[in-house]
Predict the structure.
Amino acid sequence: MNEHHIISYRKLTGIWLVLLLLTALTVAITRVELGGYKVLAALTIACAKAGLVIAFFMHMKYEGRLLRWLLFLALLTLAIFIGLTFFDVLYR
Amino acid sequence: MNQTAHKDYFGAKLGMWLFLFTELLLFGGLFLLYAVYLKRYPHEFATAGRQLDWTLGAANTVILLTSSLSVAMAVTAAQRGETRRVMAMIGGTILCAAGFMSIKYFEWSAKIGHGIYPGSEQLKSGPPGESVFFSLYYITTGIHGLHVVIGALLLAWIALKARSGAVNASDYILLENGALYWHLVDLIWIFIFPLYYLVL
Amino acid sequence: MSNAQPPQASFWNDTGRSGIAAWIFSTDHKRIGLLYLYSTFGFFLTGVLLGLLLRIELIAPGRTIVGPQTYNALFTVHGVVMIFLFILPSFPGAFGNLVMPIQVGARDVAFPRLNLLSWWLYIIGAVIVLVSLFTGGGAPDTGWTFYVPFSARTGTNVSLAVFGVFIIGFSAILTGLNFITTIHRLRAPGMTWDRLPLFTWSLYATAWVQVLATPILAITLVLVMAERLLGTGLFDPARGGDPLMYQHLFWIYSHPAVYIMILPAMGVISDIIPVFSRKPIFGYKMIAFSSLAIAAAGSLVWGHHMFTSGMSDTAVLVFSFLTFIVAIPSAIKVFNWVSTLYRGSISLEAPMLFALSFILLFSIGGLSGLILGAAATDVHVHDTHFVVGHFHYVMFGGSGFAFFAAMHYWLPKFYGRRYAEKPALLAWALMFTGFNLLYFTMQVLGMKGMPRRYYDYLPEFASLNLLATVGSWILAAGLVIMLVNLFRGLRGGVPFEGNPWGGATLEWSVATPPPTENFEEEPLVTHGPYDFEGMGKP
């Protein structure tokens, strides 16, 4: 694990621009009347942004399999906590 | 005891990621509450959410994204051995943190000035869903703000280390872990922004 | 505690500092382990005293020694001390620290300074909890679960106690991430994942629960503080909040937390049984896997604490079903231990006796847990003494007895001297008898309908309560004998050298007591943890 990937300034700036674009898109999309889909749309974009930050700013794209699996495990745990709670909340 | 163990670079990073998971779950608890109460009070959440100024939220989003870029560049600079640039980039991040916190300060004080804060008479007499929304808003952004402050202090300390040469091209794990922490602060905000300022 | 320094170069006398500073600022995992051992065990004894007081109050109906308010405070503090100050930190903190790095062939944990910080956070949190008992409105009276709305309204000092527990949570997180990193990164050459001792495997699973569940406790406690200090109303129905959401958040942490308490105990048993049966463990892979499975499945079942709380029927069904899944990996472990015993050459020494009683007591506790996990029967016995009996079987009969087993098994290794065998057996017999008298009676009382958390009860429960209280005295007497014998032996007992029990895990291959660096040179592992032939022992 001694080789460290160096991400160029240009690439980082590119990612930043995409992130700004996605932010603008979130704002635009939530100004339109979409009803319940608004939450879904906004969260999908937020997830995309989070993915970019994790992959490039946090170098996850260049890490080995272990860290990715562990991150997946953490997110899965959170999803389960929220999901199972909704068995109560949705059906009460 | 005299032979110093060689530094386990990946181990240090693994430890940091594990810590980030705990942060993720910590905020996860708050998002869980948000989801449950949004399900119960969609309309009250909409009315309450509209009382927040989304332009300020958007400004803070841009500021945090920029700060994240800046600290990511600091890592690249460290890898390339450009010490002066490391400090400049961290400086940029800390500046962004200060900007974020000032905007937050104006937002909060405006809201509190209007009588909207946890336990205020106005919220107590208003619809229950709005009280829940603002309580969650204050707790979530409050804890997030605390993380911004801690992150900025951490990065300032790392910048000092970089100046003294302790963070350099062959040993920059401290900076990398500090940057990871900062990105997490950004990540949380990426979700706070649409959920509190934009949704509905 | 430092009086027992044996002569040869060991972690006891190899230090740059002197006096107490050599301990409380040491980053050596063995010293930190002993710090944890003594600090957590001190709180255990405090909890025992409180428990004895509770039993004395219940010896007869009506007020015996304390009134209702004091009784409420007593059982709250008993629970908080036992759970947050003893069982949760004790296994990973004490024996995890003492043994795990040596078992994987490392010189120390991955982050030694973080390790020390974690002990300090534990002590700071514990002191805050103690301070909360005597300041503000006095000792909390909410029960260890801090349920809202009562915890948000009571005048007692809940805020400070909860803050102390919050800090202790931080300490648990640091221990957890330290252990995961250590097990991933610091295994010696040849120490493959399928040669990892089962105690270390169980700590690995435990560490994941610590990392992924504790933050939920942290945020829950912050919310209780916010509820009390800021009036956020997030759990207040009058303000749109939902008190059941508190219970969800609390048990999302606290149910997995019972696996923080029991998993390392199972690991200890898995290490002791093969050594004293002179036989490799049966089903190594399944035991290792079942630790992970228990940790995973244990995170899906928190709702079974809330069957009578007014949760949706769908959720009751789902959580009840999921609860039964946990029984599978637990049973896998029990069956594998029993299979290991089969045709082994069993020697009934103190560690083994405690380990064997673990299997029995844990099984009783686990099976009574199924009665509680099934929604229909749970409604009948919920909040009765049956529940109290159940979790004492699992937590005390399980984790507690495993802790005693670990003390008899490993402490001589770290002190270089050992306890006397006969008093240890006597102590075990007394404790085992007293334990069952006390807690089995509780389960019967619960079945008959005696509710928990009352200082008074109906006269028809009197004789059984008397029996239970007498049981608590027998248990306490055994405990005193055990402790006196154990610690007297560790200070001035017969020398304990080499590997008298013939363990094949790495901690038995180093000098007794271990040197500061554990290994003179990095070990090369060539055999499995229970491969008694591979290590050159008949």
